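Technical annex B. To support the medicinal chemistry partners, we prepared a structural model of the target in complex with adenosine-5'-triphosphate, based solely on the information shown next.
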Amino acid sequence: MPAYNFVLVRPGELWLKGKNRNDFVRRLRRNLASSVEALYPEARVFSPYGRFMVELPPDANAQKVAEICAATPGVSSASPVLRLQNDPELIVQTAVALAQEEWAGETAPFAAKVKRVWKGFPIDSPTLSRQIGEGIIRAMNLPVQLVHPVLELGVEIQDSCTYLFARRIRGVGGLPVGSAGRVMLLLSGGIDSPVAGALAQKRGCELDAVYFHSPPLIGEQSLEKVERLAKILSPCQGGLRLHVVYFTAIQHAIHKLCNERFTVLLYRRFMYRIAAELASNRHCLALCTGENLGQVASQTIENLRLVDRLTPMLTLRPLCTYDKLETIEIARKMGSFEISTLPYDDCCTLFMPKNPATRATEEELAAEEAKLEVEALVSEAIEKMEVIVL
Ligand code: ATP
Ligand code: MG
C-alpha cells in the first residue's frame, strides 16, 4: 500500500454565496495553506473542480493534515487521499488494499462510490464501483449498503489522475475566515475569550486581538499565556496582530480615586474605550468578547449596557447564551483549555472589592469617571501599547 500523498478538502457553505464565490475560494485556499504550512512549510494547496487539494511532502502525517484542514472554518469535511494513475486494474487493487488497511476489524456496511469527473475514462462508474465492491466483499466479507453507508470507499477520476479515500473527517463548517471582515477580540487569558474568537472566526470574522496587561502585579507568564492562546487562533487566518495595552496606570488611578464598588465596571469601561479606538484604527467592523450573561457580576444585562453605550461600535458576544460546560467543550476541542487553566492572574482580579456592584447606573459611573482624566489615560495607554505580530 502506498502512503497517502494528498488531502482532499470539501468546502461547506460556499455554494450559498453565489456572487462572492471566487472571493470565498481564494480566502479558504489561503487559510488552508497557512494552517497546513504551520506544520509542513513545503505542502501545497490548490483548488481544482470546486474542491481543495493539499499536496503533502514525503513522510507527512496525512491524518494530522486532514484534521487541521477539517478544523479550518469553511470546511465541511476532509479526507486523506491516495493519488494514482488512471489505470483501472491498479485502481481496483489499491482500493481493496486501502479498505483492508483502513477498515481492519470493521463489520459495518460499506459502499464503493465512483465519481467520474473525466468522462474519457474507459470504464463507467457503476461498473468500476461494482468491481471494487466485489473485491472488498471477497477480501473482508463486509455487508453492502448503497444509501448512507457507514464506510465509504471513494474514488474520483479526473483527467490526469485518480483519487482514493476511505475516511472522512467532519469539518467545523462555517465560512472562510476573513469573508465577514475584521473584528477586534478582547483576549484575556481566560477560558471564554479564545472560544469567542474561534466562534467569530467560524462565521467569517478575521481577528485582531487586544490584551490588557498589568505588570508588575500581573507577571510576564500571563502575557505568555495570552500569546499562546493567540497562536491557536492565528494559523487559520494567516497571522494575527496581538495588541498589548499596559493597564497598570489606569487601574492605579481607579483604585486611588474611585469608589471601590465600581472597580470592575470602571476597568471594563476603559477596556472598551481603548479597544474601540484600536478597532477603528485597524478598520475593524466590531468588537468581540467572551462575555456571557450572568456568569459574573459585571455581566448582567444592565452592566453589559453600561459598556455598550461607550462606543457606537457593535460588540459581538458569541458566548452570550452558552453554559460554561458548552464553552469548555469547545475550548478542549480547539486546544485552548489546558492553556487557559494555567493558574496565572488576570488584571480584573487586581484590587477586587469585597462587594462589587451587580447594578450600577450610567450616572454613578460617570460621576466616578469625572474624578479621572479619562481621555489622557486612554491616549497614553494607546501610545505605550506594543504589538506582537504572530
Ligand atoms: P475570560 O474567560 O475570557 O477571561 P471571563 O468569564 O473570565 O472571560 P471576565 O474576566 O469578566 O470574564 O471578562 C469578560 C471578557 O472581557 C473576556 O471574555 C474578554 O473578552 C474581556 N477581558 C477581560 N479581561 C481582559 C484582559 N485583561 N484583556 C483583554 N480582554 C479582557
Ligand atoms: Mg477572565
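Notes passed to the chemistry partners:
The pocket of adenosine-5'-triphosphate (ligand 1) is lined by residues 186-188, 190-193, 210-212, 271, 289-291, 295-296, 298, 346-348 (CB under 6 Å).
The mean pLDDT is 93.
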